[in-house]
Amino acid sequence: MEDISVITAVHHPLRRRIFDYLLLYGTSQVTAVARALDSQVGSISHHLRMLERAGVVERAPDPTGDRRTSWWRIARRGLTWSVEDFADSPADALLAREAQRQGIRMQIDRLQRWHRRRGDPAVADYDASNTETTAWATPEELRDLSARVLQAVRDWQDAIDEHDGQERTPVFFFAHAFPTEP
């Protein structure tokens, strides 16, 4: 189970963008992150320290040897959690529900931005996918599904050779599995 401090650290909107940037671009200088996210260096530095305290990012050695600059990298690839993980603590459950709301807003916003730019030549060759189904499951079977999907995504990520000379664009994948009614 994730600690609530990790969940709340990552689900701040700017910290989530920093996390995603480092996932995609790897070890980066704080000024490059600030420039890419159109933010102030001081603000990015502050949020990187918050993510560092949560164990999500870590300081990285300066590849140029110039110790006057600040470099950062991902300390872990992702999070899997549920609001129900925090049912024993009303305060943590409240924080988890808000983090969940933030996460869902971000996911829907990214999906809507994709739909708005579908005609953009930069992404014209990408066919976004939509996969959904309804089935019967026990709580344990649903947890098993979540673990299998996460493993499939990680296997897929690991199989991509980012140095093969092909041009790629960032893609976002999200999935929700939950009890429902027809």
Would you kindly provide a written description of the structure presented here, covering whatever features stand out?
There is one protein chain. Helix 1 runs parallel beside helix 5 and helix 3 (30-36) packs across helix 4. The protein has 182 residues and is mainly α. The longest helix has 27 residues, at 90-116. The chain has helices spanning 4-10, 13-25, 30-36, 41-53, 90-116, 139-159, and strands at residues 28-29, 57-60, 71-74. The chain has a 3-stranded antiparallel beta sheet with strand order 1-3-2. The model has no long low-confidence stretch (mean pLDDT 91).
Based on DSSP secondary structure assignment, what is the total number of beta strands?
Answer: 3
The average pLDDT is 91
Largest sheet, in brief, is: 3 strands, antiparallel
Tell me the span between the first and last alpha carbons: 31 Å
Shape type:
globular
